[in-house]
Amino acid sequence: MYSEDFSLFLNSISAKPLRVLDAAISNSQYISIDLSENNPDLKKFDISSSNAWQEYINNYLEKNNKTVAFGGYLEKRNLYKRSLYFNQENSEHERNIHLGVDLWIAAGTKIYTPLDATVHSFKNNTNFGDYGPTIILIHNIKGESFFTLYGHLSLISIANLKIGQTFKAGDCIATLGEASVNGDYAPHLHFQIIRDLEGNYGDYPGVCNKKNLDKFKKNCPDLNTLLKLNY
């Protein structure tokens, strides 16, 4: 299935928005947020500090009277410069283009699978700036298989999880972690669709460099096909 056809397939799964957060949070309570290198507000605080990020996100939500800040698909960010895990000496290989969507909300928030799923793998990715506890689910819909990745979770989310464990759409699969366990970020969910895991287990790149962008765009399509938040 070609990349464009696969995006159309994802979009056709449900006419209604699918949710990874509480379904009671309506679209009107989501607000997009620009965390790209072009946002001048990000020059006004220390972007290497998870506490400063949390204050910025909380103020943004309070100012706009919203519950969830979201966005980031294919967004080029300076945030990753703080970590050698992303920041290579050769700028051509610096990974700074975000491949999922981030949903910024408080630690402890429950996370749900949007579709019937089986646990493919899970892992605590402990590099500085990495995902922390991560779950990857596999979905088989209308003869098509694909994966969804949930990053920056709490440790308890993977404590009793089992490979092959099944969930129904709408089941709670995890909770969000605090900065001390989630890679040192303000609490948020990194949510990503992946067509081919390429042999990865409990992990898959959530950020890429410009050189490999075309490949990753095809393998990690736009999340709005499922979430329908119109960002």
Can you give me a brief rundown of this structure?
With 231 residues, this protein is α+β, with helices and mostly antiparallel strands. 17% of the residues lie in helices and 25% in strands. It has helices at residues 3-12, 50-64, 156-159, 213-219, 224-227; strands at residues 30-32, 68-71, 97-98, 101-104, 110-112, 117-125, 132-141, 144-151, 166-167, 172-175, 188-194, 207-208.
The low-confidence runs, each spanning 5 or more residues with pLDDT under 50, are none
Q: Structural class of the secondary structure composition?
A: alpha+beta
What amount of the residues lies in strands? Answer: 25-35%
Q: Number of domains in the coordinates?
A: 1
- The name CATH uses for the topology is Glucose Permease (Domain IIA)
Helix segment count? Answer: 5
Instruction: Please state the average pLDDT score.
Output: 92
* Order of strands in the sheet with most strands: 1-2-4-11-8-7-6-9
Radius of gyration of CA atoms, rounded to a whole number: 17 Å
Q: State the name of the first-level CATH class.
A: Mainly Beta
Main sheet attributes: strand count, strand direction, barrel closure: 8 strands, mixed
Q: Please state the overall shape, judged from the principal axes of the Cα atoms.
A: globular
Termini separation: 25 Å
CATH architecture: Distorted Sandwich
